[in-house]
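At this stage, I needed to go through a protein sequence along with its fold in token form, as given directly below:
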Amino acid sequence: MSHQRWMIYGANGYTGELVARLAAARGARPLLAGRNAVAALATELGLDHVAFDLRDPDETRRRLADVDVVAHCAGPFVATSGPMVDACLATGTHYLDVTGEHPVFEAVLARSADAEAAGVVLLTGAGFDVVPTDCLANLLHAALPDATALELAFSAPGGMSRGTATTGLALNAGGGRRRVAGVLVPTPMGTPAREVPFPSKVRQVGCVPWGDLVTAHHSTGIGDIVVYTRVPAPSLLSRLIRFAPVRALAARAIRRRPPGPSAATRAATRIEVWGEVRNAAGETRTATLTGPNAYDLTADAVHRAAEHLLAGTGGRRGGAVTPGAHTPATAFGPNFLTGLEDVTVHAPRR
């Protein structure tokens, strides 16, 4: 096989396919990969493809040996991220993922010293989870450097992919989380709640265990963090979902759904993000952003992140990004947002 500059692993999944199609439309030529079923898409797009299973570490390392960057889009990341990171460290391949699972963020960021030693960039959360929120948090922190508290809220209509919905089952079963004095603290899902002035209108939102509880803490150092979105009213199902047999039934129902939002749905829906920081004196700064559907933003962000990692020195040994483990903002700076298609940032204000 000839030398390949970057790979999309999980190109047979909903998000991976979106990344592949966008990259090909922009003239890029990623290598498509997955455990199976990537040949048809690769043939349609005129791209090379390989199939391998991450449970085979020797084969995984062999397939990554000639790859500079891998965009890891195959969940559940709590199971797949570790083997892929191990292989990337062994082969000197830069890694990025689109996880939304806070245990995965913690695990990847904990390997920063290993990545530095290997001359590798590990970038976790390179999609909607958590590019907009992480970058907005860092813009706010720059506007109020002594901030001690951060609140973030997002609205992402349009529905979820099967993979996102399946991951959400496990997260919801674990209940809510917020960060208090640097420590993750369990809290009932949706608690606390508040009204948030999004750009389009004020919405009632509740606390959720979003990735910024890890990533924004890592990138800003702020110790008190709460993330909000719309949370359905408590129901019998929401109380039963913590039991494994109920989750198994729900997962089977999810597998019967379409792979993800249609192109028409994505085109008709947009995200909104709001953020606020506060310091010990009670000073605040707020900012908002609007952008395309979360999955379209993810595809754009992943492609641009891969191109950034390939830039400068041919892609190996850090490129323009310092080797180590990163969030989007620590890798590329918070203004990475402004380079994304159809994203508008409303700058921090008092």
